[in-house]
């Protein structure tokens, strides 16, 4: 079966890619002795610790804590102990430790250069109070919390937070068969050569993707060709490791060819997808690159930060004895997923909650990039934190950047935080097995933006569309798929909702821009979210109106909105580019702005005439009532701020009504006589 699958892949155009595998690692040659990266080596060689003297673990303590695990993995993980020794690894291992994650990601080294003495600083992660490397921990598990907090427990239990880490046998969506082919693709949840009995858990849900953590608690960034990991047979191959629903279900070879008609360089064969490619349509290379870079990353370095799990091992001896034995690890798991204690602290209030719970979402949802060339922006006003932008994956905002984007918004400056809108317990309001997300919201846009809500309620076509459909489009990528990310075309790897809120009405300004001097090709470097003149992020018209996303329910259930690749609307409502959308918006906004401006001028004129015109009490009363009504409409249109976009016909009618009030008031005033007004000093 594996040979047949490979022949099919070659038929799809992978022969050239496979032929170059020796560039990365020669067959039948043992791997060199593995080493951690230079960042980690420096910390390990000369650590600045606080735990030995203060009993409190800080950043470098966390990095040093991981050393013993790496020594163990280099000696015992089959990639090095078996396959590596026999020259059966296709790909070059790249070791990713806590040092490289905390002090390398997010341009942390550039941020550190701005600190006194170039002090090493992290710019991206906020760690949980406890790690899987803490022995013993005081976690009691969500079931214990649920004994007293039944409502919160029931809400949490059906959310995706509770399902993000699952053991084999907990996958009803595939009848617990992790090798079942999905959505008509060649791929299953687990990649070739990886079976349920050699993994600790799967990561992810049917909404977007699946990954796995192997029995040594190493991120599953590889597959096995012509053999099985459990038998030590075949060859370990970098990449081809992650099932991606978007590729399997929607971005089929047929859909890719359809897209290519509008985007000539869009790939249509697996061999054209670059580092993200694989040997199976639906299975991608994430973390690793196909037959190239083999990311070797312990779960303690990355996975446990957000896809959390905790053990009840009493000491490290028990822990190391269990590594490589998935059943033993599963047996000792006390908590998994984003459970109660990940936010409230181990044991919660039972042992004293030390967390400030105004928001703890930032731990996973505020991934940042320090952008050094933005330090001196005029709107930054010398504040170094203003140079933090949302982390990107290739040319799209990364998953987990909801909080980073919120930080870039005016809403943040006004005090809005994650828990202002979100219920942290019931994070998923719909079935967690669904392909789309409907978060449970405790406060929505209409609760604050009452004027806008009133206008939208009177819209012709958009009255049933929620605010988030346009103001919070799906823009974030959970992958790193350079080949398919087209930010100028608002697709095709968008699986999470933007948290910038502002829509930039402009024919040219883009939400995403590459670094200085870079072209707009998707493989350019330094991509970041653009800012307006006040330093706030925004989404452009293409993302707002014509994005392509199979995970965004507002698109999926909205006849594809105006996407050139999903829309079911009439041809005239399918937009090919941002300039076209801008032209349509101007058809709404220009007449409203012109009518509004005339009303503002008429209102000002009438108010001045009231001061100098002799009127009977009845005339004055009637004129003032008319002017007040017109003023209310003028304020409503101005406060709405969309200039007809929220509800064009209704807004136009309101502007015309105000105009009629002011014309009538003018007529009444004209019936009176003018009086001289003495100048006052």
From TrEMBL:
Pathway in which this enzyme or protein is active: Sulfur metabolism; sulfite reduction
Cofactor field: Cu(+); heme c
Annotated heme c 3 binding sites: 340, 343-344, 425
Catalytic activity: [protein]-disulfide + hydrogen sulfide + 2 A + 3 H2O = [protein]-dithiol + sulfite + 2 AH2 + H(+)
Sequence positions that bind heme c 6: 411, 445, 448-449
Gene Ontology terms: cellular component: periplasmic space
Record's keyword terms, sorted: Copper, Electron transport, Heme, Iron, Metal-binding, Oxidoreductase, Periplasm, Signal, Sulfate respiration, Transport
Binding site for heme c 8: 462, 545, 561-562
UniProt similarity note: Belongs to the multiheme cytochrome c family.
Annotated protein name in UniProt: Dissimilatory sulfite reductase
Species this chain originates from: Parasutterella excrementihominis YIT 11859
């Amino acid at each position: 079966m594996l040979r047949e699958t490979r022949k099919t892949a070659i038929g799809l155009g992978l022969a050239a890619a496979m032929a170059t595998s020796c560039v990365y690692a020669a067959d039948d040659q043992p791997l060199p002795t593995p080493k951690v990266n230079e960042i980690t080596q420096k910390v390990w060689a000369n650590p600045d610790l606080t735990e030995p003297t203060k009993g409190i673990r800080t950043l470098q303590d966390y990095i040093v804590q991981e050393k013993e695990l790496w020594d163990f993995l280099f000696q015992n993980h089959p990639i090095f102990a078996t396959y590596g020794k026999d020259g059966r690894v296709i790909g070059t291992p790249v070791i990713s430790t806590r040092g490289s994650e905390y002090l390398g990601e997010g341009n942390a080294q550039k941020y550190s250069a701005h600190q006194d003495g170039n002090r090493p600083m992290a710019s991206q992660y906020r760690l949980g109070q406890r790690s899987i490397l803490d022995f013993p921990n005081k976690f009691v598990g969500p079931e214990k919390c649920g004994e007293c907090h039944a409502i919160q427990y029931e809400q949490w239990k059906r959310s995706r937070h509770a399902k993000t880490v699952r053991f084999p046998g907990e996958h009803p969506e595939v009848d617990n068969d992790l090798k079942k082919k999905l959505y008509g693709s060649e791929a299953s949840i687990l990649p070739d050569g990886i079976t349920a009995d050699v993994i600790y858990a799967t990561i992810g849900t049917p909404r977007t993707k699946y990954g796995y953590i192997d029995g040594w608690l190493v991120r599953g960034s590889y597959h096995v060709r012509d053999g099985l990991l459990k038998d030590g047979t075949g060859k370990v191959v970098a990449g081809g490791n992650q099932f991606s629903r978007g590729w399997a279900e929607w971005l089929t070879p047929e859909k890719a060819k359809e897209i290519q008609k509008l985007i000539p360089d869009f790939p249509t064969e697996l061999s054209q997808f670059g580092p993200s490619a694989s040997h199976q349509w639906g299975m991608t290379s994430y973390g690793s690159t196909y037959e190239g870079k083999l990311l070797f990353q312990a779960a303690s370095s990355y996975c446990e930060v957000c896809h959390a799990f905790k053990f009840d091992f009493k000491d490290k001896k028990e822990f190391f004895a269990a590594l490589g034995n998935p059943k033993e690890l599963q047996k000792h798991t006390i908590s998994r997923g984003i459970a109660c204690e990940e936010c409230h602290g181990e044991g919660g209030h039972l042992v004293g909650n030390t967390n400030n719970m105004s928001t703890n979402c930032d731990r996973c949802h505020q991934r940042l990039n320090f952008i050094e060339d933005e330090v001196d922006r005029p709107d930054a006003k010398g504040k170094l934190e203003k140079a933090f932008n949302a982390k990107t994956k290739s040319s799209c905002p990364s998953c987990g950047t909801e909080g980073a984007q919120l930080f870039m918004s005016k809403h943040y400056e006004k005090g809005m935080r994650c828990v202002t809108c979100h219920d942290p317990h019931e994070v998923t309001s719909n079935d967690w097995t669904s392909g789309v997300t409907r978060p449970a919201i405790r406060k929505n846009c209409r609760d604050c933006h009452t004027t806008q809500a009133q206008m939208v309620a009177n819209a012709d076509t958009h009255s049933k569309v929620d605010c988030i459909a346009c103001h919070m489009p799906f823009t974030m990528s959970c992958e790193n798929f350079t080949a398919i990310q087209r930010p100028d075309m608002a697709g095709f790897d968008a699986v999470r909702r933007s948290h910038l809120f502002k829509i930039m009405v402009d024919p040219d300004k883009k939400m995403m821009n590459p670094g200085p001097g870079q072209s707009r090709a998707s493989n350019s470097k330094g991509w970041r979210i653009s800012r307006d003149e006040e330093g706030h992020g925004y989404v452009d018209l293409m993302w707002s109106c014509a994005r392509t996303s199979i995970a965004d329910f507002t698109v999926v259930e909205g006849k594809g909105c105006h996407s050139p690749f999903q829309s079911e609307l009439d041809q005239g409502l399918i937009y090919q580019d941002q300039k076209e959308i801008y032209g349509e918006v101007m058809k709404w906004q220009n007449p409203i702005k012109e009518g509004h401006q005339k009303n503002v001028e008429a209102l000002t004129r009438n108010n001045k005439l009231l001061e100098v015109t002799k009127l009977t009490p009845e005339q004055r009363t009637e004129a003032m009532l008319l002017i007040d009504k017109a003023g209310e409409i003028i304020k409503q249109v101005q406060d709405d701020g969309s200039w007809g976009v929220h509800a064009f016909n209704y807004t136009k009618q309101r502007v015309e009504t105000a105009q009629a009030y002011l014309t009538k008031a003018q007529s009444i005033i004209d019936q009176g006589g003018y009086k001289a007004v003495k100048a006052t000093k």
